[in-house]
Amino acid sequence: MKPVLDAVVKLVNTIRSRGLIHRQFRDFLQSLQSEYSDVLYYTKVRWLSAGCVFERVLQLKDDIVSFFHEKQCSAECEMLEDTEWLSDFAFFTDFLCHMNNLNVNMQGKNQFIDDIWAHLKAFKLKLNLFARQLAKNDLSHFSRLNSIPSVNEEKLKNYEDGLKKLHFEFERRFQDFSAIQTELDIFTMPFNVNCEAVRPDLQLELIELQSNNHLKQSFLNMPKLEFYKSLSKVSFPNLISHAQKISAM
């Protein structure tokens, strides 16, 4: 992805660094009634915020090309007329959009570690889906790439392989979450977990909990942490301690 990012940032900086062209470019875009934002002028780009820059440049691609041709410096934007480069650009723009969605989900309020893990598991499943679909030339979830005419099969295979590698990397980096899946399940869905599959110190308390319909209804109607705070310290000391441990992660 870095070569594509470098090329986009270079293009943006070319526009930004020429004072006269900078003003003319804004006027030019306005004359074409193109929406415009200073997001195009980012100089330092993080991987996630790069998605905003990619999206904006892709939206303004035809306007940018027309502008540079008019100024007789078409070499500055020749990659925007190269289908091979545009395929990579569109793919990364689509992918960064999916990454941004993951980032937004994980930054939501009042989330515990089990919520974060749920988002990560969902994204891993999405990566598998994307890879399988690309293998069948299905671009349902890559709309920008789908807008590029005649994307060759070798490119699609490279994208598929890249997604598989990323899935493997996600598995490696977050393997600790998988190791504590049962611990998370006890916190997240105590009324569904198999009592025989949990630690002995929690088994009897879970049986008592799962047999109480009143507590089951309370669990459905209350935020998780509030529910555990409402439990009797006499009847459920270990479950309360477990909930405190998980919520502090």
Note down, in words, how this protein is organized.
Helix 3 (50-59) crosses helix 5 (83-106). The protein has three domains: 1-81, no CATH class; 83-178; 190-248, no CATH class. Helices cover 69% and strands 0% of the residues. The chain has helices at 2-17, 19-31, 50-59, 61-70, 83-106, 113-135, 143-146, 153-173, 175-179, 181-188, 200-210, 213-221, 224-230, 237-247. The chain has 249 residues and is mainly α. This is General transcription factor II-I repeat domain-containing protein 2A.
Number of domains: 3
Helix/strand/pairing category: mainly alpha
Number of strands: 0
Count of helical stretches: 14
Shape: elongated
H/E topology pattern? HHHHHHHHHHHHHH
Which strand-content bin applies to the residues? under 5%
Uncertain ranges: 31-45
- Helical proportion, percent range: 55-70%
Average pLDDT reading: 83
Briefly say what this structure is.
It comes from Araneus ventricosus (Orbweaver spider). With 249 residues, the protein is mainly alpha-helical.
Features:
General transcription factor II-I repeat domain-containing protein 2A; 249 residues; single chain; 3 domains; 69% helix
Show the helix and strand layout.
Elements: H1 2-17, H2 19-31, H3 50-59, H4 61-70, H5 83-106, H6 113-135, H7 143-146, H8 153-173, H9 175-179, H10 181-188, H11 200-210, H12 213-221, H13 224-230, H14 237-247
Helix pairs in contact: 3-5, 6-8, 10-14
